[in-house]
Amino acid sequence: MLIKVLKPSATVLVVLICMGVAGYVATGPERPDSESASAAWLEPGAYQVGHAELIFVDDTRPTEENRGVAAKPQRTLPTTVWFPIELEADLPLIIHSHGVVSNRKEMVYLAKALASHGYLVAATDYPLTSGSTAGGANAKDVVNQPADISFLIDSLLGLRDEHKPFSGRIDDSRIGLSGYSLGGLTTYLATYHPAWRDSRIAAALAIAGPSAIFAPLFFETTPIPVLAIAGTSDALIEHARNAADLGARARNISVITIEGGTHLGFIGLADPAFRFMDNPDTLGCTAVMAVLDENPNEPFETMGNPADGIDSARDLPGICDYGYAAAAHPGRQQMITEIATLSFFESVFSMVPARREQARNQLTKHLAADFSEAFFKPALTRGL
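Predicted structure:
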């Protein structure tokens, strides 16, 4: 009798699994034509990718008290590095900064893509803005994160063979930043802030990064190439005042706009987890609003003043107060982001002139031609 009961149950389970697999395949993102220029940029690079976990401790700067959790005399930075295995060469270094209530593993797909093409990528959990923060993530600590980036750069450059998990050497003339959401804001600060910027940074990428607080003066401290990627359906970081007008404020920033791109659509978890949602930012808003104080723009108040190009009198958008527009497929959004990220950094850091030119053409021409959701707006200066 037991066997008779189990057999139909097993059959039902197999049917359900098959239906789930079929549904997953049927709802997958449409890939660019295999003959298109963009298709090749989605293929892994020539190198196998390794990763390692490191912990860096800055004993010169404290972690502040946070909602009743005691202050600490140091800032501890658990860090993951992704690297090309057995590549004995000079490696470009990319430091990635995560969003609030997130963590260093939020965009592994980008880290692996870059590492497979010969990059060293490092991402840390910041002491007070990650999702594991005791007392809850505190966006106000973003003002301390540019110094965390400089410390990470110093620490990685200082690794010796017995502590260095990767074979190559870091090329200190090819250091770049990437950042998502609050990490995008961190990237802007570490790139441009007159007091906090790190002059070793040679290229920077901000994904869904807040920028409305910054007047044109803020962006005049460096001419290095910068790329912003933003979505028009982002419910947390409004596209109109944070990305659409960036070209008018910053002469060296190019902008990729993804029609229907959402805030959560950029993170690796989004596809397939959020594939069936009208707009996954309903979840993002709940998580972020839970850790923000009554004034969502309070983190900007200690960054500087109009003399620094940081002007709280600008028309600043709120967070999650202007609705949830229809979303693009998160898989398509991530394809665009991966191609844009790789082609941007290759256009700056590749040692081969023909590869740099190919990358520039991919970013500025082919990406938008192969993805109807993508639009490229070039910087007013430089070649991108």
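Summary: DSSP finds eleven helices and nine strands in the chain.
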